[in-house]
Amino acid sequence: MSQPYEEILNGGTLPRSAPSLRHEAICSRLHREMAASVAGLAAVQLLAPRTQVALSHATTFCPDLALVMAATGKLFLAAEIISRDDHRADTVTKKEVYEQHRVPRLWMVDPRYDNVEIYHSFEFGLQLKGILAGSEILQEKLVPQFRVSVSELFLV
User: Fold this and answer.
1) DSSP the chain
2) Nearest 5°: CA angle at 84, between 133 and 102?
3) Comparing C-alpha atoms, which of 60, 92, 94, 69 is closest to residue 79?
């Protein structure tokens, strides 16, 4: 069973609830699909679920899925699976920090509505590129092999 964990925001602790069973099932599916897709790609590295990623010396997050650039170790894509119990941390607090640190891609995976919000960083912050649901396909240009139907991602 998953355990509660902590993230660090501006030097302070951001306590997080233990992920639910559905959260963990979605996380496993997302990782399994991404791992198969990045096998053999030298440009990116997939980190284990909730690996600590330092965004600055005072802020360390544990994304549900993190792709880092192999050459620099910088976070390229973060996926946050929104938890019903503490959704504000993901949907507001962490999204703002990812925006401040200009993380190129952010996926907000929302089991409450079975959808995925796709954000891209641009000069003025994060821009919502789309909200995917049902049979729409989640994909990323940097990882051309990665393609998963949103409905498959949320299968229970």
Assistant:
1) ----EEEEETTEEEEEPPPPHHHHHHHHHHHHHHHHHHTT-SSEEEEPTT--EEEETTEEE--SEEEEETTT--EEEEEEEPPSTTHHIIIIIIHHHHHHTT-SEEEEEETTTTEEEEEEEETTEEEEEEEEETT-EEEETTEEEEEEEHHHHT--
2) 70
3) 94
Cβ pair 74, 68 in contact under 8 A: yes
Question: Looking at the predicted structure, is the pLDDT value of residue 20 above 80?
Answer: yes
Taking all residues of the chain, what is their mean pLDDT, rounded to a whole number? 93
- Expressed in angstroms, the distance from the first to the final Cα of the chain is 17
Q: Which domains does the chain have, with CATH numbers?
A: 21-153 (3.90.1570.10)
* Joined tokens for residue 98: 């990812």
| 53-71 pLDDT tens trace | 999 999 999 999 999 999 9
